[in-house]
């Protein structure tokens, strides 16, 4: 990264060059400053919904920051009394797959679902379908305190900003979020892709089987293996 034309790198090869950041004018323009520490960069990260994810911690260089952010983090249990529903979707080769997994505060899978369709669409609309199915599943389980997790930053940000969003996607999400009234509390969170392994792995089953499947705590062996693999890794 030392070949990138930040002012700090230019100052290393050009004597007398001012390496102060031209945007905030308050610090040297190193790469970590450009990507994270500059107030302008932080505004962009906050606007993208990543303020609690990528702004924590102090780093001297960019690579340490990136490695720390992308370190593998597994699924985490919700607080007692909460049910966590992980939703995911993918679109590939003219096929759409959505998958939903509900787990209690002990980490036990209590219900799940995957659906396969030979229907090509933009992935964000598939993610919206997964979100919709997740809310439906939580309603069937009569969940009181719900956490919905998705690794789609676009979906999560649109849900959080739905009252300000006037595009078609925002209107659809506002409609779906009326279901929030069926719960005592609802939290919608973005998670790292590595924290969504079970929902993600169900995609492969759906594609391989080209079918739909609802399952409860007596889930099939192949799903059992996916869940056990995540629990021990």
Helix content: 40-55%
CATH fold type of the largest domain:
Nucleotidyltransferase, domain 5
Strand content: 15-25%
Query: Which stretches are poorly predicted, pLDDT < 50 over at least 5 residues?
Result: none
Compute the CA-based radius of gyration. Answer: 21 Å
For CATH, the homologous superfamily of the largest domain is named as Ribonuclease H-like superfamily/Ribonuclease H
Form type: elongated
Count of DSSP strands: 6
CATH architecture grouping of the largest domain: 2-Layer Sandwich
The first-to-last residue Cα distance is 32 Å
Q: In terms of structural class, how would the helical and strand content be classed? A: alpha/beta
The CATH first-level class of the largest domain comes to Alpha Beta
Count structural domains. Answer: 2
Give keywords.
233 residues, alpha/beta, Nucleotidyltransferase, domain 5, 6-stranded mixed beta sheet
Description:
With 233 residues, this protein is α/β, with parallel strands linked by helices. The protein folds into two domains: 7-69, no CATH class; 82-231, Ribonuclease H-like superfamily/Ribonuclease H (Nucleotidyltransferase, domain 5, 2-Layer Sandwich). 40% of the residues lie in helices and 19% in strands. The chain has helices spanning 7-13, 31-37, 39-47, 51-54, 62-69, 123-140, 153-160, 168-176, 197-209, 221-231, and strands at residues 82-92, 95-103, 109-117, 145-150, 185-190, 213-215. It has a six-stranded mixed beta sheet, sandwiched between helices. β2 (95-103) and β3 (109-117) form a beta hairpin. α2 crosses α3 and α9 runs antiparallel to α10 (221-231). Residues 86-206 form the RNase H type-1 domain. GO terms for molecular function: nucleic acid binding; RNA-DNA hybrid ribonuclease activity. This is RNase H type-1 domain-containing protein.
